[in-house]
């Protein structure tokens, strides 16, 4: 794990740091202990008690196909992505559409209670201590208009900095409005008390812990409220394999592999796979969103 900066490390530099770094740094101070009275940041009650993966594991085994198809490509190549300045265009069915500077988005929710230890699962699983804010705070600030039923997201696409091929860029994703408003749905801007590394989707990415990892779109530049279900990259690429919902469901196999178990990153190569939990263990909180829906049809 990375060393968490102390108050002394952070304070003198603070004046020179951009606001986003101050935000991440302030949270790191909160985590450090003695200065916690100043920024009272502690893991959200929504957090899992499971031990987080190491900073090294979380930042060196990634999927970010704009930078290549191998798990080590994002760490090797995402460094060339320019993330400063950054703004997010919020539009569609909202009262206050516009281009919001990253710094303003990060201020849309209070600094307290921004640490979320969430499990994430794909064919493998990790526990990641995110720094983020509820997506609902951002939606409230933009003012969702009646008639909006979905939220569409879009990743930066800048071919000069992104060598990856094979997907019809930009990467796009979507959520139903009630999923987007659920308190487990966050926009993450950091992890382990530091600003988000580029390979993990700097400077702002979605985290939806009860869905397969591909829903958690990285490096977001656009959020649009829509009446119709928006397209999603994986559904466009392979509709028989990837649906819009993508809720973690061990009972529904991917057409080419079982989804009943997962490999726990960090448990060692010889460790047995463990059973995957419905909704990645968050069923108590989110199963109600899908009452009455056949999750085999709406996969
Ligand atoms: N977002 C973009 N823009 N491009 C991607 O290729 N990959 C997705 C998701 N978000 C992806 C993306 C997939 S398949 C996964 S599993 C997660 O990011 C991985 O997030 P992590 O590397 O931070 O663990």
What can you tell me about this protein's structure?
This protein is of the alpha+beta class. The chain has a single domain (7-290), classed as Alpha-Beta Complex (Sulfite Oxidase, Chain A, domain 2), CATH 3.90.420.10. It has nine helices and twelve strands. The chain has helices at residues 7-14, 19-32, 55-60, 73-77, 102-106, 135-142, 177-181, 233-237, 283-286; strands at 87-92, 98-101, 115-121, 124-134, 150-155, 172-176, 186-191, 194-195, 205-207, 220-226, 261-264, 274-275. The strands form two sheets. Strands 3, 4, 7, 8, 9, 11 and 12 form a seven-stranded mixed β-sheet that branches. Strands 2-1-10-5-6 form a five-stranded mixed β-sheet. Strand 1 and strand 2 (98-101) form a beta hairpin. The longest helix is centred in the first third of the chain and has 14 residues, at 19-32. It starts with 6 loop residues before the first helix and ends in a 13-residue tail after the last helix. Residues 1-18 and 28-39 have low confidence and may be disordered. The chain binds ligand MTE. The site of ligand MTE has 16 residues, from loops.
Short characterization:
This protein has 299 residues and is an alpha+beta fold.
